[in-house]
Specification:
heterodimer; A: alpha/beta; 3-stranded antiparallel beta sheet; 9 helices; 10 strands; B: alpha/beta; 7 helices; about 30% helix; about 25% strand
Amino acid sequence: MMKTMDKLEEDVEAIEVALLTEGIQRRYGFDFRDYSYPSLKRRIMKRVVAEQLPSVSALQDKVLRDSACMERLLLDLSINVTSMFRDPAFHVALREKLIPSLRTYPFIRIWHAGCSTGEEVYSMAILLHEEGLYDRCRIYATDINESVLEKARGGVFPLSAMQENTSNYLAAGGNSVFSSYYTANYDNAIFAPWLRENVVFAQHNLVTDAPFNHFNIIVCRNVLIYFNRELQERVLKLFCGSLEIFGYLGLGKKESLKYMSIAPSFEVVDEPERLYRRVAA
Amino acid sequence: MSTAGDQSRAVRPRRVRSLSERRPVSLIVVGCSLGGLQALQVILKGLPAGFQIPIAVAQHRHPKSSEVLAQHLQRSSTLEISDAEDLQPIESGHIYLAPANYHLVVDRGSLRLSVDDAVQYSRPSIDVLFDSAADSYRQRAVGVVLTGANTDGANGARRIREHGGLILVQDPKEAEAPVMPEAAIAATTPSAVLTLVQITEYLTDRLEYEI
């Protein structure tokens, strides 16, 4: 008897999380139902503690009636950690394996999906500038979360991060002086406005929104890891349909197409750096 | 291993247990930090070639460390050892390491990664891994807390116990850094406190793989 009661007890949290995401979807339209459970649960529990609530059910009660609470939860659920030239080897691979063929393109459309606060978008702009391609590029940088996009548009990052960023920049094959791209102002590094001249920051929800253009490159790093398998498959299909034939897809360091049913539509450009190229529908 | 008493226990003739005496287990999760590499090697060397239960390891490591950790550990084992990838299926006879700068979690048969904030200054975090193992596998999860100089893993160990799983803790007297095993012992009632050799025996003799 005790054992069965315990088992019932244990299932409650998973039920609560499912009810909360269902409620959010119906009330606000944000769809977290197909997010990866372990990470989703951790983030929700963090908000439960921060709101000083006893349970996920109590959070559900509050979120459905209080949109400010929903805003805070949305931040918890949607912010992804990012930094400039994150994984330098990925950027080296971009320089060595993508840039040579991009030189033949008259115009290059890039979609950076899930750009968060924009650090990797500025990194990409710097890389393209140094390769002499930035003037013919347009980068569409999207995220589900409007407040991180606001930050990205500002291009102001903590000065304290610049030491790490500089070493990443150099390891990523940077061939200029990193500090020439920003001006230091108190605790902030303000990035040069020309770096976002060819960038469009816009809200886009990978889970619910339709494709909006055709691209030569799609970069989506450390976003898919928060989705369950079905949602990853769906989003990858969206990417595939949004890429030109022979367009490139760049994923996060530990995200691979190899467990995905869409894999045959792509060829591997660089497996360790997760660079792929669309070869079929 | 460190004292004569431990040695004599380690060479005691082992009773072969029938299958019905073994506990069905789906996954072993291991957490370690300072001194963990050496401790892991002792355990890996002791596991037999046909050891079936998959093992997921959160060893604190430098954010920029490469996959040489897996290659290095591979020398101690015939089981397949690799850094975990997102959505990789959990397979029998495999040992998966949390990659540098990622949290490793398990989700009913698959490995998942995240770049969420560090927990207790650690990414990978042992608590995060153990917590997910408790959620996914309940009484079929076994957690092993080894040497380490911080308290990561204590909360996760408690969660595994609360969900009916087993927790084995390295004897703090034997551990290179006793803080981590001591914290786990303080946070919960471990199923057993053992030397590394005894932990290996426990895993080999008393558990049975069941998906």
